[in-house]
Structure formats: structure tokens, C-alpha cells
Amino acid sequence: MTDDREIPEPIKFNPLKHHLGCILRFLEQSTPVSLRMLNDSLCHNYNDIYTGRLTPVEISLAAIDILKKKGLHKINKLEAWIASTHHYRKITLSDHSEWIIRRGNDHQRYIHIHPAKTGPCSVRFKGSTLKTAYRLKTEDAVSSCKLTLGTVNRARADIGLSPVKKLEPGKGILKCWSFFNNQNLPSNGCK
After folding, report:
1. Which residues of 133-155 are buried (b: 16+ CB within 10 A; e: fewer)?
2. Burial of residue 101, with CB atoms counted within 10 A of its CB: 0-12 exposed, 13-18 middle, 19 or more buried
3. In the predicted model, is pLDDT for residue 27 greater than 70?
4. Which long-range CB contacts under 8 A does 182-185 form with residues at least 24 apart?
5. Which of 76, 97, 126, 163 fits 153 for a cystine, CB–CB 3.0-4.6 Å?
């Protein structure tokens, strides 16, 4: 798992929120306490997860390199570039993944990056759906078998979420569960 200290400055990037490889390694080793910390870091809105092969450090270095080549790696130039749009910009890395660049709150890590929702190496899930799948993934009794509504709702109750009325094949929790168990990664242009 990538430690935040491994991410080169001035990048702010949370691999446990946005990098599939780091998330899967974390879930394999998680405890109820560490899972709670992971779930607390997720918002209830949508979360975008990078599914490609680049490591968090490689992603960060590539973003820095792109910004340096454009002369935008210094804080004042970056702020002006971002402010000229809707306070974010998009860059594309060598694997065709798309990344959002924002101004971070930290003076040392002022370049905040996360996967773009539309990129070929991204998948998007609701925060509550991810929290449910993460909880299910860490249960010894739950294998890659077919989930039942009862199993899902017990997991949701355990992490403080309200029950769902039904499970729809190919949607929501079942889609997320399938993704994390089978790692059905998007193949639409991600190298």
C-alpha cells in the first residue's frame, strides 16, 4: 500500500480513495477498525477509482512532469490556470487515463489530483455502494458467491447505512461487488 509520504510533493493524492490496486491490497489486510477509517474517508457522493497499471507515485510524477512542461508547476501559475475555468483542469497521462487537477488546501501539497469520472481508466460508484462492497469484501463468510439481500443489509447495518429494498443485477451494489471480486476492468482505451 502506498503511504502518503511516498507521494512526491507538491501532489496531494489519496490512493486509498482513488487507486484500485491500493484499495484491493488494503481490503486484503483490513481489520474492522481500518475498514471504518477507509469508509470514513469516502463521501456519500460519487467516488472515481483509477483502474490502470500506473502506481500512485508514477501517476504523481507524470502529473508533475506534464505541469512542468506547460510551466504550470509553480503555485501562482497553477492557480491562474485553474481559476480560468471552473477551478479544475483535466490532464491525460501516457496510459490514456484522465486526471482532474485542482488547487489543494495544503501549502506543501497544492496540486490535488484524482481520476476523472469519464476517463477510460476510471470507474465510478456511489460512496454508500463502495462502503457496502468494502464491508462485504472483508467478511470471511462472504465469498464471491451470489449476494443475498439479507447479507447486503446486514453489512450495511454494520457500517451504519440504511437497508436497500432490492438488488438489481448489473447495477449498484451488485455491479460494484462484481467489479471488486472479478475486477471487470474497463477496457475502453486504458493501456
Report:
1. bbbbbbeeebeeeebeeebbbbb
2. buried
3. yes
4. 182/144, 183/20, 183/24, 185/20, 185/51, 185/123
5. 163
